[in-house]
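Quarterly update from the structural biology core.
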Amino acid sequence: MAESINFDSFYGQVRICDDVASAYKDLVTGYLKDLISTKSSTNGTDIRYSLAVSGGSSGKACMEALCASDDGLLTNVEWFLVDERCVDKTHPDSNYKLIRSLLDVNHLESAVLHDMDCQDVESYESLLVGRELDVIQLGFGPDGHCASLFPSSLALVVTDEKLVAKNSDPSGLNKHERVTLTFAAINKFDLAVICVIGEEKRDAVRAISLGKQLPAAMIRAKKVIWLIDSRIV
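Predicted structure, tokenized:
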């Protein structure tokens, strides 16, 4: 039997889940309901909420669960991408293509989804400056990366003020040049949910538990919740 993992060194709250995507859906819908109740009582009903989502297998699973359960809760959500591969928007690896298709198939065709342009990172940064940011969903790679913030990559050390940056994986394991939110941008969100799905992530989870500063362990949003696949522990 594998040695158990001690989560005391993780920043934020750790929740072990049999179904991470379902737990994410429950967490975000509950959060948005509370937010709607709070903001409506002070600002009226014409309110938009910001939700940033990742691509990849965990982003897809979490978006499918969230959108399929929607009962009108997502109508006023303004969607952002956490990161994007520098490919055409029709390319199978495009996060925009993935998220847009999930919104459309779940009858959210009118939803605003802000596209990341690898040739114009400044425009995406301008969308984030000076605004309240609510929830960000982050995946978790077998190397401990989140967003497109890879171990030993240049985007890990950009200035505190830079919110969006180009980046690439020095190991070559993750193909395509990327554009990504930086730690400074991620940490502006009220809630960051790090979704860890799949047994292949166990070594990286254990490394963080032993104090290794992998990128995902460096997230310092206002509130951080880890949803970790029970198969890992």
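Strands lie at 13-17, 49-53, 77-81, 83-85, 112-114, 133-138, 164-167, 178-181, 189-196, 224-229.
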